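Checklist before submission:
- one chain only
- standard amino acids only
- sequence pasted in full

Submission:
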Amino acid sequence: PFTLTYTDVESGNEVTTEPINKATYNGTVTLKVDSSSYYTESGPQISVTRNGHDYTPFTSNGNYIFSETGTYRVSFTATSKLGTSPNVQLRQEWYEFTIISEDQHRYSYIFNEYENYYVEKIVKDGNDVTEVYAQTLNLPKITINGRKYLSKLVLSYMDEKTGAGTYTITVNSNDRYYSGSTVATRWTYKVTIQTGQAPIRVSLAQGETTTGGITVTFNRSNMWNEIGECTVRVVTYDRSESGNLVYSSHIDSTNNTGETRYTITAEGTFFVQVVVGENNDPIFSYKVTKKAPMNAASIIAIVLAAIALVVIIFLIVKLRKRISVK
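Returned file contents:
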């Protein structure tokens, strides 16, 4: 019912093909719906969800354009005007794909089994590790033309066999319907597995309280090099379990230079966080609290209490001396 266009991460060229269900891409995806004379004047209709929620994609010249990271599910419906029974609604079809950022650093990544799909090629930091991983990783496999391939892939910075690095992954849908045709049955995308410390400076120690302003400082270039695409944010949970966003600054390939500073001036308990991905998964969290400074009345009361304490101590000492003399 539609064609799909995306940019190949290896060649940099645009590729137009029939959609492959459960595919993963690194950049913008464009869907062009077939609006041939086969359908009624209303044409085909699509509905979209992103990460399980209703979503309205950007449209241009009848094309649907997806650029945000996330998992999309596209449903297609249309009414036929041909055949012996015109105006019959065709069956609904759906198609699912995911967009991830190759610049986002992840602790781990999983490609799950689906139908007869297999991992055709794995390149880590420029080295082809397809055969090595197929032989050494304890993961499900599939045999294609006498050769074993992984049908599931798990990458983690904690795994000594995979570990941190930049991975270029090619997956083949192994769709026999297109066997021998020129229709693409594979796609390639990149994943970065990395761990690093968030280079953020906070003017107050973790968990401490102050009455003054709390300054958060970070170098965007250092953040980009350590973590990749991410968002630095300040959240308070004083009035909401879901959190109230106080400050947010996104770092990506187009906005990764210079030093940024933000000062917390409001009262409350705040969490300075670094989050990644479409679900805003936190990889760094730092708790600080700002209380209101004492007002004049409070200060006077403390001073009077201190003076009273000194007077009481003085009187007690004098009385003891008198008793000792007697």
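Reviewer check: The mean pLDDT is 85.
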